[in-house]
Amino acid sequence: MSGNVANDLRVWELVRRYAVPRWMIERATERRLAGDWRGACAAAHIDVDIDPADLTPEIEDDLRHLAPDLLRWHLPRDHGGTHIAVRRELVLGGYGGAVLYAATPRARNAPQIQRLRLRLDRKAPGRYRPADPPVVREDWSGLRHLWDARRAGGLLDHHGPGGRLPFLRPDGVPLPEGELPTADPRPGDPAARSEWVFLLRERGDLDGAITAAGLTAVEPRGRPGAWRTMTLVRHGLATLDLSLLARAGRSLAGTARVRADVSSRHCLVLERVQGRLTLSAADPRDVADVPVLPEPCWRTPDPLLLRAGRITPEELHPLVRAALFPARPPAGPPPPAPLAPVRIRCRGERHEARWRGGRLDVPHPAGEHERERALRALGGTMTGCFAVTEAWTSGRGGLPPALEALREEIFLRMEHGDTPGVLRLLEEGVDPRVRDGDGRTLLHLVYLADHEVLLPRLLAAGLDLEAEDGHGGTPLYRAVLHRASAGCVRALVDAGARIDVVNEGGWSLRDLINTHRYAHLYFLRDRIAAEHPGLGRGLPDETGGDG
């Protein structure tokens, strides 16, 4: 397996582990079963933007059976990362002149990064809507098994007939290598046929895999980026399922062409030409008017993660597990595991460190701690246990693998708004002064989580409101830049965060608010104008904004 392919699976493993935490699934399910669809959406971090006057019995019936946590599980992700893909509008249903859709965030690092919106739009769905950059609409109305609890059992059929997923037995146990096909299997075994297509790709025979899937490859045309798309498909996109893509093409109704956006700069175009299904690479700019094929129609991370042993059937979303492996017990993504002692190489020995009271307790007497601090103050280099504790709080230097994984976990839980998960780690004794490789502290990400809970906790632990990340940004600066809520910004300011900060380019908070027209933050802009006139680049104050 190439490094790029392994990285693709690694990213999806992180998505499955952190993007939809177990508590979110449980709370959303409890509210849905109680008939409280708004509460279910709130539990799944979905903002509802629907005028009650627009609700009809048909729409309300669909909303009562909406499983927002299941929708979140299947959302397309930012290429190469765990965040939700931005600027997408996923059409869930049409009701006369109204359209119900879920809108993903407009910006990658905004707090809405883990929010969706449900709205009724009286305009008919379009391929692109006026926006800069454009918003892409995808038709999920025929994919109810991805968001409607009544249809969730249809997920297995989505992967193809045959009663099992590729590479897996019906109970979810991976097939041994000896039971995988060694030649093109008969068409009557769709799962084995999909396995064969995957195996051809893994052996480097992309052309053979495309043919075996029932597709005809067409030479790329247009911009040079089209050629690089096939390189990406050949070497890096492990979760691309050519068999699933071909089935989607055969089911096209009234649309001769669709495109699969395999990255922000690469796409595949599926076209029905004289009874054949052709597959070609293209630059997205050359096919901007071609409808987008939803990602679940060409990407299948879960079977490949199960095959690789990166997750277990029990760790799938319970509705997914019930559809694919009904005999397996439900569980969901795992919560934070109990913290184990950390082994550190120090002075030719292996020392065992433990988390206690929000600090990594290393087995050295107080005198050695004092000497190391003095050495650091004089510009010396710390080693062993002391170098590890310094790396944890500075973001610079290496960490043992266990601590590297723990740091990744706590930042991913912050990024995905998993406040209960972060609190559990802190209660286990993890040092909240951690910094990542970009120099960010947990305060720099507090706008992505529940600031009312975490901000007091982090300040009480001694985190600095004026700490700068690797780009010179303070927590308040990052919150404003990435469109934090007014409540979070007010909380940071009320806690004492300076409002007169500027970045390396001379941009003040007032400049940021005016540039992005963050109307919900005009209260801060006006205060800065009154208290610090002339600060920053002096951009004129806006009067409108997106709120």
UniProtKB/TrEMBL annotation:
Matching PROSITE patterns: ANK_REP_REGION, ANK_REPEAT
Presence of keyword Repeat: yes
GO BP of this protein: protein K6-linked ubiquitination
Domain of life the protein comes from: Bacteria
ANK repeats: 438-470, 471-504
Annotated InterPro entries: Ankyrin_rpt (IPR002110), Ankyrin_rpt-contain_sf (IPR036770)
Keywords of the record: ANK repeat, Repeat
Molecular function per GO: ubiquitin-protein transferase activity
SMART domains assigned: ANK
Protein name (record): Ankyrin repeat protein
Lineage: Bacteria, Bacillati, Actinomycetota, Actinomycetes, Streptosporangiales
